[in-house]
Design brief:
The protein is 80% helix and 0% strand. By secondary structure, the chain is an all-alpha fold. The chain has one domain.
Length: 75
Amino acid sequence: MLGRLLRAEGQSRASKTVEAFGWLILFASMLDRPLVPLAMAILWYLNIIPGPLALIFSIQDFGSFLWTLKTWQAE
């Protein structure tokens, strides 16, 4: 995958840029999402957000992380 991004034969400069930023957003979200449950726990502990909201948001975001990871590995 990385080799295709670096060589990208037959693609215009614009399409290479779009693909590079797409990969950048993917990697950023894969680094960010596992930290959301920890951040929600801290916000709940500091009484900034209610517990049920922190729990629901953590489950939803971490679930989407696992879904993305599973789909990415399947390809």
